[in-house]
Amino acid sequence: MATSMNFSHGLKAELVQPYNFEMSQNLRPFLEEYWVSSFLIVVVYLLLIIVGQSYMRTRKGFSLQGPLVLWSFCLAMFSILGTVRIWKYMGTLLFTRGLKQTVCFSAYTDDTIVKFWSCLFVLSKIVELGDTAFIILRKRPLILVHWYHHSTVLLFTSFGFKNRVPSGGWFMTMNLGVHSIMYTYYTLKAAKVKHPSMLPMVITSLQILQMVMGTIFGILNYIWRQEKGCHMTMEHFFWSFVLYGTYFILFAHFFQQAYLRPKGKARPKSQ
After folding, report:
1. How far is CA 178 from CA 101, 142, 182, 185, in A?
2. Which residue spans within the chain are E strands per DSSP?
3. What does the pLDDT look like over 144-172, one tens digit per residue?
4. Where are the transmembrane segments (predicted)?
5. What is the largest CA-CA distance in the chain?
6. Which of 204, 210, 214, 207 is nearest to 257 (CA)?
7. Tens digit of pLDDT for each residue in 63-115?
8. Active-site positions?
9. Are 184 and 76 in contact (CB under 8 A)?
10. Residue 34: band (very low, low, confident or very high) from pLDDT cuts 50, 70, 90
11. Which of 80, 78, 111 is nearest to 93 (CA)?
């Protein structure tokens, strides 16, 4: 058994070696304090939505095509790089140690690659609030699923980071993967480059699938909670279940409204 575990560890180390930039200063101690600040950031975010919409009510929307292309492109590149690195790590961990290690045990969160990208992932949730600024300044419809998802993901990500929630690794992995496609689509759309007409529906479908998988991982975490070394509390389970559940309902409703409503009726628009 020990030989098998050592072999798995060796295989993981051989397949996923950190790059020099991933071994930079660890921001974890600083960001763990950020958990409290995240509430203030969300409050300011929601207040700015109210102020911004009030300011733009009697004004013409801005085009912002160039800034939007650059914004979406940068977020797409970040998501793609994060996806390549984290998917490779989590996939290696999954096939060498098993699903339970990736869902129930938090030891892997101390890995150099995971620490680096999880820190950037937490910070990216603040940056992504800028999506809402573009919607308001361009006078596009700001729907519930957008601001609710942006604000609660920020809180949930910082909560999971601080408490080292084991299934948070899959949350980050899936989120980066979906965002790689989503922000690439936003870039193409803002640049007015032709893209597959089914792409928006595919993205929303992937978002719904992400919520389903997140719920499954949460349930598995609950089932395996009695395992020795399993890092799971009822607080972790409750909040992940509540948030994934509400995300599923909101994205499923958006899917129905955007893609299944009869033609001729108003449909919600994305960024």
Report:
1. 23, 21, 6, 11
2. none
3. 999 999 999 999 999 888 888 888 899 99
4. 34-56, 68-87, 144-161, 167-186, 198-224, 236-255
5. 70
6. 204
7. 999 999 999 999 999 999 999 999 999 999 899 889 988 888 877 888 889 98
8. 149
9. yes
10. confident
11. 111
